[in-house]
Amino acid sequence: MIKIYHNPKCSTSRKTVEFLTEHRLAFETILYLDTPASKADLQRMLKDMKMGVRELLRTKDAPYAELDLSNEKWSEEELLDFMVEHPILMNRPIVVTKKGTRLCRPLETILEVVDLPA
After folding, report:
1. pLDDT band at 117 (very low <50, low <70, confident <90, very high)
2. Dihedral angle sign, alpha carbons of residues 34, 86, 60, 107
3. What is the pTM of this model?
4. What's the pLDDT score for residue 72?
5. CA gap 95, 110 in Å, rounded
6. Fewest CB within 10 angstroms: 29, 63, 64, 117, which?
7. How many CB atoms sit inside 10 A of residue 63's CB?
8. How confident is the model at residue 56, as a pLDDT?
């Protein structure tokens, strides 16, 4: 089963949902602002994406600047805690499949982890 960590206000996230729908791929939508990923889930996704926490942080939203998260004093563990507390800090959309996990920015990245029907 495909999972997408989705924010309906994000155009890239909406385009990813549209892509999955258009290709008739079954998927589960996780509205991560309502149901935040746990620290363990974030760690698992980051490991699967071979990505550091800072690469997944969304820098454009208010909490990033307010919390001074660009400051190198914050450890990866502390940054994860901030992402759990403020899920808007997680960049999106993240697609999880049996083939892997990807931050689908740009949208075409999804092709690395989904098999399109013939």
Report:
1. confident
2. negative
3. 0.93
4. 96
5. 7
6. 117
7. 16
8. 96
Catalytic annotation, pick one of 3, 8, 9, 10: 10
CATH architecture of 2-112: 3-Layer(aba) Sandwich (3.40)
* Strand-by-strand arrangement of the 94-97 sheet: 27-31, 2-6, 94-97, 100-103
Known catalytic residue: 10?
Answer: yes
Neighbour-count burial of 41, counting CB atoms closer than 10 A to its CB (0-12 exposed, 13-18 middle, 19+ buried): middle
Tokens of 32: 């991560």
Please report, as a single letter, which amino acid is at residue 86: H
- The per-residue pLDDT for range 24-79, each reduced to its tens digit, is 999 999 999 999 999 999 999 999 999 999 999 999 878 999 999 999 999 999 99
